[in-house]
Design a protein that fits this description.
20% helix, Beta-clip-like, 376 residues, alpha/beta, 15 strands, single chain, chromosome
């Protein structure tokens, strides 16, 4: 069975030329769900299966554009929400911005990164007046306590890419958000440096690359990029149903393969602290389950030599317990290459255990040079 045969119902019977089909059609068709994405025309997600096995995506799976808060999970009340009061976009790069208040920086590394930013900038495209304003901020002449603190490069060819110190860390990313006073606009696909747009909204503005979900020969479904990606580039978020710890454990218990279930469950535990005054952070963390409701990143496979890493991203600080899971590239990736991440990244004991065969362990099929041979 060919790829076209696998999705014959959509290709031949679902007519989008006259508008979006009825909900009963889109709810049962993965192609229609993807086509309904607001970014579909610019950054489409496609599905292909050239293996000849006739497999399609799980029928009980649905594509979503935002995570779903399930029973028992609550976002912060409006009275606890806050955002920065920055009135121009440049201020959102410095430590006077309230959104960056929890950022931790080593000053020597910070100065080296700032110098690299300057070297990457294109002087022909940087207005002289903007350069003077940035120098004033850095010298503390614009507003007090101005040190460059946000996670991204801000100028030139690297604008919008994660700084190298972040790629080698597991620190959370703090961004401006819908509760902030700074502007949200962007200049097409490019991060802008002017007064009309805040560049500290990379994850918030969403996926800006086309992806393809494809059938692999031996690892089920995978995801590849259709364009070249730069090191430090944002790819997409991991979406799913946000569950209480109790519900997550229940789903594990009823799953036919508990370890397989853990492939789709991600604990939102970046800010967990038993001593926290916030009961939501002091208690068991929430978990994100992408098995039945998720975005295209749900189908990204594991590799012991991955080209992606997941970072915790915080918008409104009142909702740290529901932080985003954001995929960024850790090296340059060519168009057509498969996207991968390490399922046990940062979990030292699991990574070490996987190097030694224990009965019942799941084999790793990534075929990388430093493959640990087993997932867990």
């Amino acid at each position: 069975m060919g790829d076209r045969d696998s999705y014959r119902e959509h290709f031949f019977n679902h007519n989008w030329k006259t508008g979006r089909p009825p909900s009963q059609v889109t709810d049962a068709c993965h192609w229609c769900q993807l086509r309904a994405f607001p970014t579909h025309k610019q950054y489409p997600v496609t599905i292909v299966n050239k293996t000849g096995d006739g497999a399609t995506l799980p029928k009980d799976f649905r594509f979503i554009t935002d995570s779903i808060l399930t029973q028992g999970v609550r976002a912060a009340e409006a009275s606890f929400r806050s955002g920065c009061a920055c009135t121009d976009a440049l201020a959102c790069r410095y430590d006077g911005c309230e959104c960056l208040s929890d950022m931790l920086w080593d000053e020597e590394e910070e100065e080296e990164e700032d110098e690299a930013d300057d070297n990457d900038s294109n002087s022909d495209s940087e207005p002289e007046v903007r350069d003077k304003r940035q120098l004033n901020y850095a010298n503390g002449n614009g507003k007090p306590n101005k040190r460059a603190k946000f996670a991204y490069h801000s100028q030139g060819a690297k604008a919008g890419l994660l700084r190298s110190r972040y790629l080698d860390s597991r620190e959370p990313i703090y961004e401006c958000h819908e509760g902030c006073a700074c502007a949200t606009s962007t200049d097409g696909d490019q991060m802008t440096d002017g007064d009309n747009a805040c560049v500290n909204r990379v994850v918030e503005r969403g996926r800006r690359i086309p992806l393809q979900i494809f059938r692999t020969e031996d690892r089920g479904w995978g995801v590849r990029t259709l364009v070249d990606l730069k090191k430090g580039q944002f790819v997409d978020r991991y979406l799913g149903e946000i569950l209480t710890a109790r519900e997550a454990n229940h789903r594990r218990s009823v799953s036919t393969m508990a370890r397989r279930k853990d492939v789709y469950l991600f604990a939102l535990d970046k800010f967990s602290d038993a001593d926290s005054l916030d009961s939501r952070l002091a208690g068991p963390p929430l978990e994100c389950d992408g098995e039945f409701r998720a975005g295209p990143t749900r189908f990204i496979n594991h590799s012991c030599s991955p080209n992606l890493r997941i970072f915790a991203r915080v918008g409104d600080h009142a909702d740290k317990h529901i932080h985003d899971l954001a995929f960024f590239t850790v090296r340059d990736i060519s168009a057509g290459d498969e996207l991968t991440f390490d399922y046990v990244d940062g979990i030292v004991n699991l990574a070490a255990d996987a190097r030694h065969h224990v009965e019942g362990m799941t084999p790793c099929l990534c075929k990388s040079a430093n493959c640990r041979k087993f997932l867990w």
